[in-house]
Amino acid sequence: MKATHTAVLFTFLLSFISPSSHAQEMDNESLEKILYVVSDTLIGQAGAWEFIVEELPMICLTDETHNRMRIISPIAEMSEITDEQVKEAMEANFHSALDVKYAISSDVMWVAYIHPLKELTKDQVLSAISQVYYGHLTFGTSYTSSDLAFPNIGEPAPEEEPKEPVKKKSKGKKSRI
After folding, report:
1. Alpha-carbon distance 51 to 39, whole Å?
2. Residues 157, 151 contacting (CB under 8 angstroms)
3. What is the pTM of this model?
């Protein structure tokens, strides 16, 4: 039930942030306003914030000079993570984690959303926070960041027949491969 509550909360908060989903150019000031609205607490300074959403700690780091932004949440120290969980997380990065990825840094397993800063829209920031939230919550179980997942390679999608591969038409040049 908590997941449903959070989804409703994100949708509700989205309605209070400008109706335009297209950012002219996201910057630290605009990002901080969004983080302030959606978080339970927000501390830090431009480019380095710690915040909490539904009791889940997150960090947002930006670099305006290099046009980068990341929202991350620590899952656990690697000493608490099994080899099987690492394998499942890596498979999830390909199939079900979508825009977030499971990653290891400083001997900690993280869930991370990384994106160019200026090109971010308000909707993408909200989606990023939601996906980091669900990626964290589902680590060790379904390893998903939303309801969408891609089928495993070699396995047809549910209720879909395998299709013949599409063959490229030659443009007169012979391939060396």
Report:
1. 6
2. yes
3. 0.73
